[in-house]
Amino acid sequence: MTHALGKDMHEKSITAGQEVAVATTILEAPAMKVFGIRAYGKAPKGFYGIDSIMEVLASNVDKNLLKRIHSFKKKGKGKGRVVKKGEKEKGNEEKPETKKKANDFEDFKKVGEKVLNVRLLCHTQPAKAGVGKKKPDICEVALSGNVEQQFAFAKEKLGHEIAVSDVFTGEHFVDIRAVTKGKGMQGPVKRAGVKMHRPKAKKRRIVGSIGPWNPSTVMWQVARPGQMGYHSRTEYNKKVLKIGPAANVKEVNQVK
Known about the structure:
mainly beta, two-stranded antiparallel sheet, about 25% strand
């Protein structure tokens, strides 16, 4: 964390027109890598919304991604039993080839009319950051434009990296979404800030009344015990001041 000096442009502010210090956060954001493409179409009959139709995965993936998705691992060649002369190996001759062929971009032409939108399957590269983590996180990235433009962009980026500078530039406003720290099951005192009862009360860490007899219901405004934390939260209009290489520290720590 550091601070930046700037001019206050809010007309009704006390410090309007003056130079003020604003707290800023420095983030290390390694490039994300595209390891697959997923096409979405109309959901089957009886369901609402959209559903995935087909996926195309990159031929070469990072070894750290195998710690998250095990289906990329190649099956080892196991040792079978010795087959005697004149004896058929059980189950091998009669069974047809059942190995499923991997999809490629040519298979998208078969379902081209059904595709509504295309998304990128990406994974982070925390090993490139100084956080001591190697197992990546996986997410879907939506694309703008029509389906043809989405296919063209996805084909170009499959197996390659997407840097922060490819998406954002300086002076942009972004919305930051994350998950709060989980605290598990908590009572109303810690969860909702309810005042504790006096020491002589039978129970101190409860709500005094949860509602009248009639109507016999508990309103949503009444503080109740339940899950606390691990909630999705979004902070709006965070301004990106500058994007630059991590090696150039002097641009951030300007010592006079």
